[in-house]
Structures
1.
Amino acid sequence: MEELSLRNYAHLGDAVWEIFVREYVILKTSSSKMLHKMTTDRVNAGFQADMLNFISDDLTEEEHELARRARNLPIPVGRRSIQNIYRPSTAFEVLIGYWYLEDKERLEVFYKKFRSTEFFS
């Protein structure tokens, strides 16, 4: 498979992350209000930046390089005021998208790590 652009990995990673979160929260409640809150609490730039920080020590050199390149992508004008959150969030989405397409076993390793933390309790 031809390697995608970092933006394309991020675009896919955003969707994959949201599905992961939604699959998780539907097991926690059937309240539509709580489903929405639990999802939006975890599918946002700040939370995703925190998740990148959380997994940082477990990344390989190649994954660190991928995240570094993603953090250095040009920032859309509307997001420049929050670039300290937006940049690592984008890097996180790139990693999720990359693992989804290139290494689902590695993605599952991190899914297990996410599920086992207080972030997902």
2.
Amino acid sequence: MTKFKRILLKLSGESLQGQQGYGIDQQRLSDYAVQIKEIAQQGVQIGIVIGGGNIFRGLSGAASGLDRVKGDQMGMLATVINSLALGSALTSIGVKARVMTAVRMEPIGEFYNKWVAIEAMERGEIVIMSCGTGQPYFTTDTGSSLRGIEIEADVMLKGTRVDGIYTADPEKDPTATKFDDISYNEVLQRGLRVMDITAIAMCKENNLPIYVFNMDKLGNLKRVINGEPIGTYVHP
């Protein structure tokens, strides 16, 4: 028995680059696809949002003088590239997947529609939703919160390269301690950088819990789905 029936899986673009430092690492992509297939075979309905930081970040572009709107649009296109790559990796191992985009760009992807996405998930397809919200000034974290709420997911699973939420960045501070369980309010009050403030506020207002875990360790996605306490649970 799985803990969740329908999930929104948020993957970071940075994790897709593996040890390369840029672009898409094929082994990491394959590992992700295998983990997603494992839980799909358990009957879990899966929606996915991927960031684009391994290719381009709108904020970084704006910091170097690029127009913010254009930079964010470039970031949206980066998420489409990652989504197409994951969709292809899933298809290659026998999993039905479709890419939807928040900005019209047929035939590259199907224009996002909540009802079409839900119907596809109910048929067992993996739905990868790209372009964030389709609007500038919003992160893919906020895009994933929005999509998770829209598709009526039971939880947002935020797959990262660390095993949960800590009092400080564990990669920089060896004294940082991990939370097994934390409220939205405490995340906001402590200024913990789990997701941006808008994304956390949306989840709080719409009662969408968040589970943060290390997606880079093979088998972890299945462990989360089966209820093993390996990450941090964010809730009301």
3.
Amino acid sequence: MSEQMERPPGAELQITFLYFHDVPRAQEFYERVLGAELAIDQGWSKIYRLTGAAHVGLVDETRGAKRASVDKPVQLCLRVPDVDAWHAWAQTQHVQNLTDPRDSAQLGIRAFVFDDPEGYQIEIQSVLEGAAA
């Protein structure tokens, strides 16, 4: 018969690690375009606060557990209060593969996407008026 254990306390923060060939270039992009704040500097891994306890880690692929690859099956999504203001900002930053904002009634969002310097897709979205958050 197994003992009943109590679950340990939950996570204090969340970090999604992305692997890059050129971390300084990625840092400049995440700071300039997204306004991300460097929260933890581990040398070859730079961890940026995106919002609250959500973070993204920019890792030097020559040192990290994974390697950067051409195929990027990861999308980083940020929910913002005004997607159209963010789209106007993204246009001034000359980001790659910028799409026009589109509404999705099915998802209850208005969103657009663009790529970071090494091809990770970033989605910026807002809740459609009247949709459930």
